[in-house]
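Collaborator request, handled under Task 6.
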Amino acid sequence: MQELLRRRTNQVRFAYRHFPLINIHPYAEPAAEAAEAAGARGRFWPVHDWLFANQDRLSPATLIAALTDLGLDGRSIAAEVQDHAFLDKVQSDFVSGIRSGVEGTPTFFINGMLYTGGHSLPELVTAVDGAARAPDTSSAAEGRLAATPAGARPSPDTDTKERSS
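Structure tokens returned to the collaborator:
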């Protein structure tokens, strides 16, 4: 995604929504809550990136250590996760994803349409470029890509995490 954002800076908006697959990753939901807690401190993306790179290491102890290594108060965030301070946000993202047709991750929407093509950089560049050339019939701007899970139909009570190059 970073390279796609770099190559198509004026065409792509990457909007992130939580879609924790707890049947595959048992710690996915608390990890998403921890990312939201980090986001409340202005540090969503560093935690997101760590979580993505370490999906097989999401135990509570490892997560607390990682948050601390990232310059955050790991114990304070762990307490917020234990209190489920951000659970409503994570679950709202998940429900919004279900309503939008998301079945797994990653899922991409391009100009409001579920993208079912490949996820390699050349495939995504081709899809974004094709969308940019197509007539704009939606309220989305040209070639904009929003990613997992809710993409095109964000509910008004659910914010997205956007990332630019």
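The cover message to the collaborator said: "Confidence is low (pLDDT under 50) at residues 139-158. DSSP finds seven helices and five strands in the chain. Please let us know whether this matches your experimental observations."
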